[in-house]
Input
Amino acid sequence: MKVDFKEIDRLLQKLRANPYKIFPVETPHTGYIKEFKVKEGDSVTGPTGKWLEKPGTPLFILERERNPKIIRAHTTGIVQNLREDLKGRFVQAFETILEIRHPLSQEEVISEVLLSALHVIYAEETARFILVPEISHRIEKHGLKRAEVRGGEDILIMTFMKREHFIKIKEEGRFIIYQVYFKPFELVPKGSPLIALCPSEDLPVLERIVARIREEWPS
Amino acid sequence: MKNKVLIANRGEIALRIMAACEELGLDYVCVYTKGDEGSLHVKLAKEKYRISDYRDMNDLLCVADYAKCTAIHPGYGFLSENYRFARRVVKRERPLIFIGPSWEAIRDLGNKLTMKRIALEAGVPVIPGTIEPIYNEVEAEIEAEKLLDELRSHGVENTSLLVKAVAGGGGMGIEEVKDLVELRPVFRRVRAYAKRLFGDEGLIIEAKIPVFQHLEVQVLGTKDGEYVHFGTRNCTIQSPFKQKRIEVAPGFDYEGKFAVYNFDPRKVEAEIIEHSLKLAKHVNYDNVGTFEWLVTPEGKYYLMEVNTRIQVENEISAQISFVHGKRINLIKEQIRTALGDKLGYSQKDVEFKGYALEFRLVAEDVKRGFQPVSGTITRFDWVDHPWLTMRTHVPRNERYEIPTQFDPNLALAIIYAEDFTQLIDRCETFLSEVVIEGETSQGAPLPNNIAYLREKLKFIYQFIY
Output
């Protein structure tokens, strides 16, 4: 694998200069904002626990058809740009209600940096994706960073304009499935990363990069 | 109180419902999803709301309440044939009018299996096959064997079967089985597909009618038990994925320009209309509906399914149907009668004149398996003629990004003529004048199906093999 160490240095420098990501929190659907559970500057946390079984901090309550829904934080950070003017009002779907200024964790930095080092399959269209069932079983059995795929194998199914299309691994060789970036059947915007693969023989190089980031970036 | 309609749909049908509401003097609101902002219905609607999905019932009802709507028009696709939605619309604390048939009629006829059972009860012929969903392959094999024996005992040669997803539609989730040994793998494949796409893995097995024409009967019923029909349509020209591409009304070629029948087409037409009305009356059907039939070269006919909604191709029936000398508008009739108006005419007042043909202009690559394509339309233009009606959500001569979440239909071109020769001339003129230009998301020229439509125009009214 040709790893561009200069590019990795540049990325790390950029992340060090601004080690935050802004996550807008949108209404998942229409409804009325009944109550805010946070105010500007509050610290919030995303889901925690071994299986993320402990839900994130409640942010606001959105009520629709008499069903109140607690909208919770999906990530850790500080609340900013809270739209308090919307309290008690009707909102459309995908209205931004607040933002969470999220400090990047060590794992997130690793993930970001590895995007430039791994063989990544990106969404060619805005569409819904699932893993081919056989690949999904392999990941369940062996786990990420262990499950293997071969060049030429069908790896993803894209549902697009009411038709299914199989996506193959175009390159030859054996690969480790390193990371999956989407949830089954969610709408993935064009150009987003879907799955990252690592040629089996390159895993040691990758592990060296990960070790370096772990050393340099506080956990 | 003045009625206000929530248009729970997108694309050209949303535009046609908007126009019908305006002509009836009704207020309306539109909804749209992320990615659909560039569509014409969004640009033209004065009152509009962004929702999460056109299939999200709670979002639609929440907007309907907020905007003080009194009725919901579901259009076609999405929730239009979901009887649970139709029931919920009318049964809630703040009930609304559902502009479509009653939820009971949708429940009875909208599901292929229930429809088959009810049709058989009413003495309406249906395609031979199973009438219960099948979930396991052994059961499927037993049923397939029985069906093949039955067909052979009736002297049917070259029998083959279709394995269909109960919840499928629009040609999706159907595969052919020519030999019993193929059944198990095909059954497993269609079942997995049905589970993935429709969340329901129930399948049925039907005889494949090898040679046929696809006919439709357009019916309108009211809550007062009035029934009329607006003749037949022929929808035999489809893509290899069973998606309609050319439709023509009336459904039979009485002038004998294209088809040679071994039966009396007027008699067969009268019989399928009679059966359709019989079934509609049997379930108190009370809005627009389409009864889809397969007609064989011997003049046998089988009811295939009932579409309990307005159909994409409704306008070709409307263009040849005149009441008291005035052309009918089926969407207006649908809204008006759902809001409680009497029909105001009977079958004897409906006069049929001329021919109407619809082309579906689609962004699809006919050379590469009719693959739908996404991308940007940079030029979409045609020459206006008094005989041409264009129905499209694509802005004319403006850049338009084709959304990828929906099917790639771009426009419907409806052509009217007084006689058959004139119809074909006008169709050819239109196809030579229409321009669709653009590029795919990969930067290649945007393909379309115009060449396919031109080629297939020669085959209208013919039996397909």
The helical segments of chain A are 5-17, 106-114, 133-142, 203-216. The first helix of chain A runs from residue 5 to 17.
